[in-house]
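Recall from the previous lesson that a structure prediction takes nothing but the amino acid sequence as input. Here we apply that procedure to Class I SAM-dependent methyltransferase from Streptomyces litchfieldiae. The sequence below is the only information supplied.
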Amino acid sequence: MTDDWLRHNRENWDDRVGVHAASEFYDLPGFRAGADHLRPFEPEELGEVAGRSLLHLQCHMGQDTLSWARRGAAVTGLDFSAEAVATARALAADIGLADRARFVVSDVYEAATALAGERFDIVYTGLGALVWLPDLPRWARVAASLLAPGGVLYLVEFHPFTELLGDDGTSVERDYFDREGQVYDFPYTYTGGPALTKTKQVQWHHTLGDIVTALAGAGLRVERLAEHATTMWPRFPVLERVSAREYRYPAGRPRVPLMFSIRATATA
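The prediction returns the following tokens.
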């Protein structure tokens, strides 16, 4: 495992931004025209956000962040990729939300320093974020420190069980309890081509128990843990599309959880 994981991951994500911004997967023209980027269950689980301050950790190009802003939240997005933050700021301006959305360049572990001790009503983190972090308890402590008293942490992630499945989505091929960092050198991102130039990346597998325990250890009270039978993209060829941004196993076939969400509150 490389000691330069942060540098490799930042370079890799900087390189992805141009590819993602031009992709059909992110569909920035559709988003500018009003398309929502949240999963259908998210607004229901989190509740009313109008008039509340919301911090989105590891926000990438800001579409989820700005989807909450469209619902009335005063949002701050934080990401370690300066390229992603520049795209998010431009997107906010394009859709007329620059006055209600700011974006900050920072590694998530340094978020409290980057935000000068500011506290938020809601700390939100979205899909595909946690696998890039080696120290989950540290992440949870940072997230908890950014919450105002009584504030809510809302986390939505791909279910860690999906990391065990082979490419066909029907067979278990990996060890659920293998937490060692894995170095990958792959020329493409999940949206397809063109090829990247910064191809090395480092990821970690965290079990569902690891995640819940980290939040509890940071002093947060877990109120809800929901496992979802849908995901946002056709990760496995067996999945079928059921809406614009939802895919699931076909009816009549055994299912596994594809995403999960956690709502937790600050107790002090």
